[in-house]
Specification:
By secondary structure, the chain is an all-alpha fold. Helices cover about 65% and strands about 0% of the residues. It contains nine helices and no strands. Helix 2 packs parallel to helix 5 and helix 7 runs antiparallel to helix 8. The N and C termini lie far apart (about 80 Å). The relative contact order is 0.08.
Length: about 270
């Protein structure tokens, strides 16, 4: 290029493009890391939704059971076993994405699926044994590497109360009595499902969410929301039992319902 001549805009742009900024490799690594983060997050969310869907189907099948402290009917067992396997496989598929620090990084994304799984697992355990599954017992039902936090365990038990409510009211509508199991060691009488629900309500009401370190936390909001729903579920069963007792006293001995004249019961609201 001769002295004093000006470079064109295109020449200047071409020369500038050949200059590699020392920051480019750094930002390219940031881009790769963010892409990996979003991919992992989407995989975890998809797995959580699949686990939630399968857990709900397990609960629907368990609602066909009509007796406490009895083995599950073969048709129910046949239906839920493949769904448990599917849930186990979905947890296993995201194990590499929820290890180490990522276990906490994606906790909110997988939390919903774990809570729904705990709800289904604890409901089955209650139907078979009439007791709550412990945190340690529930952890053994998950693949090694999937962490069950105390928060997800407790919130899953909150949801269990809604299934106990549906189970109790359905049994009262079909059998005319409150579900109860056989007396356990150290107990003089049989314990019915309403007594268990009241015990759960008492325990849940002792949870203190007013501490300063919980202000604004997601756990506090979840507990407060589920607390009201849980109390409503227990009250619905109490109301159904009171109504059954009162109507039973008003009707004469040997009374048989006239199905044609009986009014249709109000549907149970979804929990």
């Amino acid at each position: 290029m001769s002295a004093g001549s000006k470079r064109s805009y295109s020449q200047t742009a071409m020369e500038a493009s050949k200059v590699v900024s020392p920051f480019m490799p750094l930002f390219e690594s940031f881009r790769s890391e963010l892409d990996e983060h979003h991919d992992r997050r989407e995989r975890v969310i998809k797995a959580s939704r699949d686990i939630t869907a399968q857990s709900k189907k397990i609960i629907f099948s368990l609602q066909r059971v009509r007796k406490l402290q009895h083995p599950l009917p073969p048709n129910v067992r046949k239906d839920i076993d493949p769904r448990y396997k599917e849930i186990f496989d979905r947890f296993t598929s995201i194990l590499p994405d929820i290890q180490g620090l990522n276990a906490w990084r994606y906790q909110r994304q997988i939390s919903g699926g774990i809570q729904e799984f705990i709800e289904a697992l604890s409901f089955q355990h209650y139907l078979e044994t009439q007791r709550l599954i412990t945190l340690q017992e529930a952890q053994t039902k998950l693949p090694e590497g999937v962490q069950l936090t105390e928060d997800d365990y407790v919130l899953g038990l909150f949801d269990l109360v809604g299934e106990l409510m549906r189970f109790a009211i359905t049994n009262m509508a079909t059998n005319g009595e409150l579900p109860r199991g056989s007396a356990k060691e150290g107990e003089d009488t049989e314990r019915d499902i309403l007594a268990d629900m009241r015990s759960l309500r008492t325990c849940f009401e002792t949870l203190d969410t007013s501490r300063g370190n919980m202000d604004g936390s997601p756990l506090k909001r979840d507990i407060e929301k589920k607390m009201e729903t849980m109390k409503t579920c227990v009250e619905k069963v109490e109301g159904a039992v009171y109504g059954m007792i009162i109507r039973g006293r008003e009707r004469p001995k040997g009374w048989v319902p006239d199905m044609a004249s009986e009014t249709r019961p109000e549907p149970v609201e979804s929990y």
